[in-house]
Design brief:
81% helix; 2 domains; single chain; mainly alpha
């Protein structure tokens, strides 16, 4: 596997340009449009999914929701191993074999084969491993729940493959159909199933994801997925299948360790609490972290396509795109997470109920993790292009730190906040290693490190103040004032760095770009120019 990574790294380094001139505005325009297209569907699905989980947590209780979250986390990890990042694989090769090319029909068949085989492997592994996993957790009663979670693992793989394919083929209508099907299905069934227990919740999610994929397959012609070319000599699928499987194995190398360590930590949090309440708190904290990371994550995912593009003027843009995306990701994630940290005790009570107010410490630590993770995501994406091998080493270091730290729960009962602190520390370490690796290659744009460190320092300081506020209710007022000062000061410093390095968008250019997409805004802009 290391040999595969090294060969891939050599290919990337050979194709890298010797110099990186300033990019044209087209790079920013492409980044904006691709992020908007990808975000439209994901926001719909994640928004409805978040609301569905919120209602299920309130209606089912912390114990039921914790068991359901453990089963879904296990299914997701097994699915990741079996599929090897199939969503990213589908997106990447959709760009190579787009709709309208002769190889498109063969690509669709190959992707269908890979996804079905991966789904079957995931279901079989989790079904066979349910009893040993339940025994490892010292909760044999979870065996039936993990059995049913096997079908959810298969559904998750099919869903990720379908979404990646639609994103790669730029089928916005298909993304919306898929996202609406999953989101509306989740919000209509998951809260209702929470009254019946975690098994019905897991089963309903597996059925929904599979049904959404089948719906897209049935509507492939209305969604514009049918090949416009007439049948001709078939493109052999053997070489293409080997190509896609090879890429999948490279993806898998970087995912196995991280997901295994994450699951190990999650399972030990559940193991240390017989009531599963702490597992519920941990799940809530991770859900809120994921919501904060949603918009910056979409931007980072879109920036990877721009930084990796080897054609035209986009090849000259990686430094500028990395700097711009780092600035926006840190600023956006800190703004959202900072508000969440300040309002955590009241927000948890309002959203989930009074029983979840004790999840405040885990929540603020997870929100700080979102700032670290998203702030370093553009740099981490750049490193995967420049040196896949070093990126794999850093991911391995992340996994080792999490796995070793999680063993604390084997010798001493822990809680959700300790688990969240472990994840935060691991993300800080990996982010610093990414910046160090890029710095050694002299490809860290000026101001990126300062922006990232400011965001990290601000979020960690705010999390510490918020935890102190929980422990010392009598000092709530001065601590709240300190939170506001730190929050405002951090945002102001990041904004100042962005202004100094000219990362803030030019207003006239931004209006022109948006005006080309919105006729009314274009008309208003023209009238303003003439005036």
């Amino acid at each position: 596997m290391i040999a595969l990574l090294e060969r891939e790294e050599i290919k990337v380094e050979k194709s890298a340009p010797e110099s990186v001139p300033a990019p044209r505005q087209s790079a920013a325009a492409y980044l904006l449009s691709s992020t908007s297209a990808l975000g439209a569907g994901v926001v719909v699905e994640r928004g409805f999914g978040f609301l569905a989980n919120l209602l299920a947590a309130r209606m089912g209780g912390a114990g039921t929701f914790g068991a359901y979250s453990l089963a879904i986390a296990t299914a997701n990890n097994i699915g990741t191993y079996a599929a090897g990042g199939i969503g990213a694989t589908a997106t990447r090769f959709s760009g190579k074999y787009p709709l309208g090319t002769k190889a498109y029909p063969a690509f669709v068949r190959v992707l269908l084969i890979v996804s079905l085989v991966s789904a079957a492997i995931a279901a079989a592994i989790l079904w066979a491993g349910s009893a040993p996993l339940a025994h490892l957790l010292q909760k044999e009663s979870l065996t039936p729940l993990l059995h049913w979670a096997a079908f959810s693992a298969a559904g998750m793989i099919l869903l990720e493959c379908c979404r990646g394919f639609l994103v790669g083929q730029r089928r916005l209508l298909g993304i919306l159909v898929l996202s609406l099907s999953v989101g509306l299905g989740m919000i209509s069934s998951l809260p209702a199933m929470s009254h019946l227990g975690p098994i019905p919740m897991v089963c309903s999610q597996g059925l929904l994801t599979t049904a959404a994929v089948l719906l897209c397959l049935l509507l492939y012609r209305p969604l514009g997925l049918a090949s416009p070319l007439r049948a001709s000599k078939a493109v052999p699928i053997g070489p293409m299948l080997r190509e896609i499987w090879s890429f999948t194995l490279i993806q898998l190398a970087g995912l196995v360790g991280m997901n295994a360590a994450g699951w190990w930590l999650t399972s030990l949090v559940a193991r240390s609490d017989a009531s599963m309440v702490q597992m519920g708190f941990y799940a809530i904290a991770n859900q809120l972290r994921n919501m904060v990371a949603l918009a910056p994550g979409l931007l980072s995912q879109s920036s990877l396509a721009v930084m990796a593009d080897c054609e035209g003027d986009l090849e000259k843009a990686p430094d500028r795109v990395m700097a711009l995306c780092s600035f926006v990701a840190v600023l956006a994630s800190l703004a959202i997470a900072g508000i969440g940290i300040i309002l955590a005790p009241w927000a948890l009570t309002i959203l989930y109920g009074k029983a979840y107010s004790a999840a405040s410490a885990a929540t603020v630590l997870s929100l700080a993790t979102a700032v670290v993770h998203m702030g370093s995501a553009p740099a981490a994406g750049r490193l995967t292009i420049v040196s896949i091998k070093q990126s794999g080493y850093i991911n391995t270091a992340w996994a080792i730190l999490v796995a070793l730290s999680a063993t604390f729960f084997l010798f001493h009962p822990g809680n959700a906040s300790i688990g969240a602190a472990i994840i935060l520390a691991a993300h800080i370490l990996s982010a610093l290693l990414v910046l160090l690796a890029l710095q050694r290659k002299s490809i860290v744009p000026p101001g990126v490190s300062l922006t990232f460190l400011t965001g990290v320092g601000t979020s960690i300081t705010m999390a510490a103040l918020a935890i102190a506020r929980n422990e010392m209710p009598g000092s709530a007022l001065p601590l709240n004032l300190a939170l506001l000062v730190v929050f405002g000061g951090g945002l102001a410093l990041i904004f100042s760095v962005g202004h100094r390095h000219h990362w803030l968008p030019n207003r006239a250019v931004l209006i022109t770009q948006l005006g080309s997409k919105l006729p009314l805004l274009n008309k208003l802009n023209s009238e303003r120019v003439h005036a």
